[in-house]
Design goal:
Order of helices and strands: HHHHHHHHHHHHHH
CATH topology: Growth Hormone, Chain: A
Strand content: under 5%
Structural class: mainly alpha
CATH class: Mainly Alpha
Helix content: over 70%
Largest sheet: none
Number of helices: 14
CATH superfamily: MFS general substrate transporter like domains
Distance between the termini: 51 Å
CATH architecture: Up-down Bundle
Radius of gyration: 20 Å
């Protein structure tokens, strides 16, 4: 479907990469406001409003008649959807014991990706029979219904339904924190920077490549048809789902964050090295490496746990939002950069261009491995006051 959209609107690979990255730029811009809204206005109202905005923008994307409208709609889908994950983590911090944060974060990411994987085939089938524009309209309608459900079903904290607080110090009503003050409090905590840099580089190579360039690479370099490429590409996503869930469980059980992050980052860099320098052509080997890449890159929820645990409990939403801002900055830049690299090089073959894309991902992955050594070990405890 990416090719169909690109052809219809006359988009080059670079332009398509920029269009795809609009979601991530918008997501990045809205992270800190989303965190502050979750901390001050409450996650229920914040996420319901965001999902409704995202649903309306999805309708606009499906009915786009020009590249400008396409870019605009993609941007506002990101604005709306930016509220979801931060609010989820904020609610999670209120309704469950702190010792379960990494496990629940990993399982939340697992479930989110499961929805993405499970929806690919029905969406592709829908696009085949009713077209991609009508398919986006159906998604928009379901999104709007989800936003309404969020408003009526979500509760910010146990006290809202007459239950005692599990984490009394985590109360949303701790006080209203302004934008500048919230950012200042988080960024004054030097122990958060290792997690931020790891998350930035981790997302820059993984989401940028898997989300936009993995299937084209399989199609053009390994000569797979679109169905085979899409199916094989899901190995990376499934790996990330399993890796995020298992890394959270293992980290909470061991009460260790840093060693699990370092292990995943190093393994992931080794996998990229094999893709770049070994250049396997066997489908089974490629699928296995993509699964290994995803599962090892899937340790990124632990950077969220570290960020929460070194930050004051009453600004959990803001702290996670700042981390996500940097992560999606990496994705936005990475998606555009990889698109430019895929287009760059007059006279180069498609194989050579995509090999340059892999080399760029290997370098970024190596940077994430270096950053993992600077992540702070919290022993799965909130240490903001220590």
């Amino acid at each position: 479907m990416n090719d169909e959209i690109a052809r219809e609107f006359g988009l080059s690979r670079t332009a398509f990469g920029v269009m795809a990255s609009m979601y991530f730029y918008a997501y990045m811009i809205m992270q800190i406001p989303s965190g502050l809204l979750a901390d001050n206005w409450g996650p229920r109202k914040t996420v319901a409003t965001g999902v409704l905005i995202g649903g309306a923008a999805t309708f606009l994307f499906g009915f786009a008649t020009s590249p400008t409208m396409l870019f605009f709609a993609r941007f506002f889908i990101g604005i709306g959807m930016a509220t979801v994950f931060v609010c989820l983590l904020k609610i999670q911090s209120q309704w469950f014991p702190s010792r379960m944060f990494a496990t629940l974060s990993g399982l939340s990411i697992f479930m989110g990706n499961l929805g993405g994987v499970a929806g690919q085939f029905p969406f592709a089938l829908s696009a085949l029979y009713i077209g991609w524009k009508n398919s986006y309209s159906v998604v928009a309608l379901l999104t709007l219904l989800s936003g309404i459900a969020c408003f009526f079903l979500i509760r910010n904290k146990p006290e809202d339904v007459g239950l005692p607080s599990l984490n009394s110090q985590n109360s949303i009503s701790e006080g209203k924190i302004g934008l500048i003050e919230g950012i200042r409090i988080v960024l004054n905590e030097k122990r958060v920077y290792g997690a931020i840099m790891f998350y930035l580089f981790n997302q820059a190579f993984f989401l940028s490549f898997v989300g936009t360039w993995l299937v084209p690479w399989l199609r053009e370099v390994h000569k797979m048809n679109s169905t085979t490429a899409a199916n094989l590409g899901t190995f990376a996503t499934v790996g990330a789902m399993i890796g995020s869930a298992l890394s959270g469980i293992i980290s909470d059980r061991l009460k260790r964050r840093k060693v699990v992050i370092m292990s995943g980052a190093i393994i992931c860099t080794c996998v990229w090295g094999l893709l770049v320098f070994w250049k396997p052509d066997d489908y089974f080997i490629i699928g296995s490496l993509l699964f290994a890449m995803g599962s090892s890159a899937g340790v990124f929820p632990l950077s969220m746990a570290i960020t929460k645990e070194v930050s004051p409990v009453y600004i959990t939403g803001t702290a996670i939002a700042i981390l996500n801002t940097m992560g999606f900055l990496g994705v936005a830049i990475g998606t555009t950069l990889l698109g430019y690299i895929a287009d760059f090089g007059e006279g180069l073959s498609q194989i050579a261009r995509f090999n340059n894309v892999l080399i760029a991902c290997f370098i970024i992955s190596f940077a994430s491995s270096l950053a993992s050594f600077f992540c702070y070990e919290t022993h799965a405890q909130n240490i903001a006051s220590k």
